[in-house]
Fold this protein.
Amino acid sequence: MGDATTIAPPKLVIQVTVNGTPHRNEVEPRLLLVHYLRDQLGLTGTHVGCDTSQCGACVVALNGKAVKSCTILAVQADGAEVQTIEGLAEGENFHPVQQGFWEMHGLQCGFCTPGMIMSTVALLKRNPNPTEDEIRHALEGNLCRCTGYQNIVKAVQYAAGQITTGSQAVNQSGNVGTPRGE
Amino acid sequence: MRGTIGASLPRPDAFGKVTGETRYPADLVRPGMLHLKVVFAGRPHARILGIDTAAALRQPGVVAVLTAADVPYNAHGLIEDDQPVLCAVGEKVRFAGDKVALVAAESREAAAAGASLVVVTYEDLPAATDPRAALAADAPLVHDRHGSNQLLHLPIRKGTIERGFAEADIVLDGTFSTSWQEHAFLQPEAGIAEVDEQGRLVVETAGQWLHEDRRQIAKILGLPEERVIVRYAAIGGAFGGREDLSIQHLLALAAWTLRRPVALIWSREESIVAHHKRHPMEIRCRWGATYDGRITAVEAEVIADGGAYASTSAEVVKVATLFASGCYEVPHIAADGYAVYTNNVPSGAFRGFGAPQAQFAAEVMVTRLAHTIGMDPVELRRRNIYREGSLEPTQQPLPPGVSALPVLERCVEEAQVHLGYGLAPQSLPATTSLVAESVEADQTATGSLTPRSARGAGNGRHSPSHLRRGVGIACGIKNVGYSFGYPEQSTATVELHGGGDIERAVVRVGAADVGQGSHLALRQIAAETLGVAPGTVEMVCDDSAEAPDAGSASASRMTLMGGRAVRDAAIEALAKWRDTDDLHVEATVQYRPPATTPLAAGTGASQPNYCYGYAAQAVEVEVSLLTGQVQVLRIISVHDVGRAINHQQVEGQIEGCLAQALGYALLEHFQVRDGRVLTPYLSTYLLPTALDMPTEIVPVILELSDPNGPYGARGVAEMPLVPLTPAIAAAIHDATGVWLTQQPMTPERILTALNVGTALEKGSSNEITTTIDTKSTVTAHASK
């Protein structure tokens, strides 16, 4: 065995806009987008759950499309717009999909949640009124080990309802510790 | 605040979880920390002849390579200290996931490079990888000093087994086998550790029991427990898989030895290869019953693959042996449980803790008995199911609050409504007649080895001819809390602050929230008891130095045990508050439930548990005769939870557990060959997706108070896993006429069973002997 890792390949410069903020960084060509986001930008809301592109905990939006950020090299995102879970809320206001996952108990341990939410945002962008079957197909690439998916489906339906009726997003500081109105 | 109990309050932790702010262990890594990498054995059984760290130490960035020589007390375990932290030169590695060295480096890359440069020389040894063979006198020994691979043999005896079979009109034999199950919590093991300014070792990670992690770490390092602080970051699922130490002690060792902050993040592969699994079991059993529906005798042998280290194997096997006769009062029982050391991955705690394996066998046997005597399987259950005062196999009455029968009756009612269960075909709505006809047609096509339940298969939809629908019902029982005399306690402190009114309440209880929402449930109990709004209650739960020991988040116990400690402490604090003008009062209460007792040698006589949770499920499946694929269409899951502290969270527990149960029943095929894991990725070990789950899941919550639980609550987390595999097996049988006796019931196994079943139908005799698959023989005969 030699010490192959000591011969580092030359770094490349990339420019990526992440959650609206432009970044310019030197990265190794082999660096995955997920590690760029987590380790270099400190955006740890994007999770690593499997290393083999099954779990979907690392889904982000790349130029508006949901991608597993463990299947993309950081250099492939050069010049692109990336949105992560941290960039979803608008100021103090939750995105309707975030609201749905909270309201409908669409999470337990929460580790899959950012990926689920980002996949859902992409789904509702291309199909604002999905059927239950379409929701389940769209989320097939996102694993959850806690919820059994029932409430995740309800969360997506809730969000779809909010988006189509154009309801006001809920203030983030509301709701905590108060019974759900039902 | 009154009315808080039962309310579906939203989770306070959801804010961080939907915004990405929540910190899981891998998110705690800071610049400047040393990164750790484990050198694994990669072989099932070998003696270490030498460890050469020189090349690794020359690797730029590598700071140290720790080996067994650096570990003050090199043994740990939840029950028995039989697992080395790092395997020593001259000693053995006992499974592929054993740890040999720990590399610390300035970067993850350097740590990985360093680990690949550690040269370990081994003398490979013959491996014991089959538990039955491992019991043979000449089998290779996993632990030489143990003298045998038998970790436990537990006999349970009740009545006189010979008499039980003599009283039976019918006797059935069965053999069942189950495989490992991987927890696959979505967040792989990770964490950080450092020595703080006061010289205390702080380990921040994810686990299920702060104070037990602390105890083991302190023992390994030879430190007083107060010198060690264990903190939990957000925990990304656990399911029993974080009960054993995995990385906590490695972080502690490195931080303490090197006096630098350290971080360790396992890949999914490392997680799967190295942490314990659900026990594979082989269960051979014989059940006797009378024609009028009395189960007279159960004889069972349970052999569990414990893997390389003790972990919780002894306790799991005790539970499995106790439940070999399911939730039925049987007068004559002879059950023998064996936990066996092998050179496979260690087996340990996993949601259900021995109950799912045992009751897969028991529930299938009960349904087969019913078919054989020509009785409705529900009716046979009714006649034998546990009631208040029933004697357990351990010869003592069940703890009060036995709700097995009302749970079953409710399940049958729901199954009639949702699945048309038990309705005669002519009474079904006209739209289902086509399906009913196709079911009859099946009987000629594939043959029915046993009487089918009269049912309304389908829901008005006509299935293509290669698809068969069936319905199955099964019951389940699972203990809440620790069993068999294991010390059981939970401690909580409640502080009240304010002038006239309580302005702020602080609840200190060292309870892990593994995602199930225990912190909210405990907060609701405190708020209700104190008569304050939940927002007034502050929870301190995640630091072993700041919160007292609540025991583990396991055995479905935290709502009952932690909740009762919180409630009792709140009552005491409130009494003090009313007696004083002080601006601050505080009360600490340790709650101990009714005592359990160890199993007596030879008979297993004991009071094994202080509380049980009862469950019943009905499922409808659709089986493809072409592919062997099973789609579960509907699940009804009925549970007595005593009192639902938070309805939405209880439903979430049921639905989530059903996904894990469905995976266990049909999909999750953990494979090991010659001690090596063949399924170390989520690409080879398949988990249920949103498409695998039925769209119709009906969780039914009964609230029949437990006498000890806070507001009557008992646990629910594990119970849905218990009946689902046998319920699905019964539904597959209803659909196709064949019994599956191997878990998981994969398409290949179903196709094999179908082929064998069809072949056997062609040559029937009075005594039907059906070889359903390679491992099971089923014999039905009239014994007199």
About this structure: The first helix of chain B runs from residue 14 to 19.
